[in-house]
Design a protein that fits this description.
This protein has 113 residues and is mainly beta. Helices cover 4% and strands 47% of the residues. The protein has one helix and ten strands, in the order E-E-E-H-E-E-E-E-E-E-E. The strands form two sheets. The chain has a six-stranded mixed beta sheet with strand order 2-10-9-4-5-6, with no helix packed on it. Strands 1-3-8-7 form a four-stranded antiparallel beta sheet, with no helix packed on it. Strand 4 and strand 5 form a beta hairpin. The protein is globular, with a radius of gyration of 13 Å. The relative contact order is 0.33. The model has no long low-confidence stretch (mean pLDDT 95).
């Protein structure tokens, strides 16, 4: 059963930064188009960023502030989040972009002063 483990979340003030990590099977992380998602309380899960080969795409709400990357040698994907805003508060998840493997527990990001 494929499962991902997200980490790196926490409480940060507006304008701060966090770096999320996603650990999982290298056979998946390096070969599939991957993505970060987030789900805020009472909201549906939304797509935040995707990576396919060397190509990346971002939701308009995070463009210019978030950067997705992966290190195939370490079987890890990252989400660098800068200039965080209260509306970025959510549980963040990683998964393949077009194939939904088992969802991990996610990592909580809270942006608050």
């Amino acid at each position: 059963q494929v499962q991902f483990v997200e980490s790196g979340g926490g409480l940060v003030q507006p304008g701060g930064s966090l770096r999320l990590s996603c650990a999982g099977p290298g056979s998946i992380l390096s070969r599939y188009d991957m993505a970060w998602y987030r789900q805020a309380p009472g909201m549906q899960r939304e797509l935040v960023a995707t990576i396919a080969g060397s190509s990346t795409n971002y939701a308009d709400s995070v463009k210019g502030r978030f950067t997705i990357a992966r290190d195939n040698a370490k079987n890890t994907m990252f989400l660098q989040m800068n200039d965080l805003k209260p509306e970025d508060t959510a549980v963040y998840y990683c998964n393949a972009r077009y194939v939904s493997f088992t969802w991990g527990q996610g990592t909580q990001v809270t942006v608050s002063s």
